[in-house]
Amino acid sequence: PKEATQPYPLIDQRFKPPSYHRSSDMALKASFLFLLSAFLAVSVNQSLAFHVPVTGRAALALQTPSLRSKTCVHGASSLRCATSAQPLKDNIFLNRMATSMEVMISRVFPAGAGWQLASIMASNAGVATNSLLFCSLLGFGNFFGVIVGHMLWEGLKKVVRGDVDLSREFQVASLLGGAAFFSGLSWQVAMNIFKAVGVGLYQSFTSVGIVCTMAFFLGMRLMRQNLSPIMSAVDKNSFVNVRSDIGLSIAIGGATAGLVFTDAFLGASPFLAFLEMKTAVSPLVSVLFGGLASSL
């Protein structure tokens, strides 16, 4: 019969999901935006020091991260002291969320946005996606995204609080940005390989996350080795900071892997379908989605 010879994509085009599916999707997005707004409010409150005056360890926790590298507690590394707020003992969950949101706003979102912007510029310039130049440009997108985002955030904190050492923060941003270069470059290399062998969406997410984690960790160790002689804010490689570097690498590897969900070639995730890049998406929206995918 003629109906039996119709190509399969026409069946997909005729199919319309029930309205309750759309309602559930809208409810899920509304819940996510509400939680994101709440965590953002907590992060701003914690980071910009709109606090009731306190004393003791809580007061230490609210000091500027840039100026308390010598007063870290619980054996925290100098990198952690320079990049996040020290957690308050009596409110671990909120402080963990505040720290995560601060890192997301100042480094992870700009890194993903910079990566996506570099991808757009490289594609418009006609650079082949399987070339080393293309992969390197994506790495530089990550690199500049981290540095610009970190310095803008710390600059805002300096305006509000006035006790931020921007020269020290630039050294920290250089360390993190240099490591992010390796993870951004490795993302495209890994995706090209996994696409060629036909790996699915979630398998690609996991595999790319592992590759980017290893790449970021390697970048951290290399940047420490090369920057520590000329930058006082960067510690030399040691057993103490290797543990913090591993934890940070896992977090950044997962963030970088989030860009997999923007790849329309792999199909949409039922949970993050709104991140999938369509051909009709404008460059600005594409850049914003790149940052959002990394942040999530």
Can you characterise this structure?
By secondary structure, this protein is mainly α. The protein has one domain. Helix content is 68%, strand content 0%. The protein contains 10 helices and no strands. The protein has helices spanning 8-14, 19-47, 57-61, 78-83, 92-124, 132-161, 166-196, 201-227, 239-257, 283-295. α2 packs across α5 (92-124), α5 (92-124) runs antiparallel to α10 and α8 packs antiparallel against α9. The longest helix has 33 residues, at 92-124. The termini are far apart. The model is unreliable at 6-25, 42-80 and 82-88 (pLDDT under 50). Keywords: Membrane, Transmembrane, Transmembrane helix. The chain crosses the membrane at residues 26-44, 131-153, 200-223, 244-265, 271-293.
Uncertain runs with pLDDT below 50, 5 residues or more? 6-25, 42-80, 82-88
Q: How would you spell out the order of helices and strands?
A: HHHHHHHHHH
Q: Tell me the radius of gyration.
A: 21 Å
Q: What is the CA-CA span between the terminal residues?
A: 48 Å
Number of strands: 0
The helix content is 55-70%
Total discrete domains:
1
Largest sheet features: none
Structural class: mainly alpha
Number of helices: 10
Transmembrane segments: 26-44, 131-153, 200-223, 244-265, 271-293
Keywords: Membrane, Transmembrane, Transmembrane helix
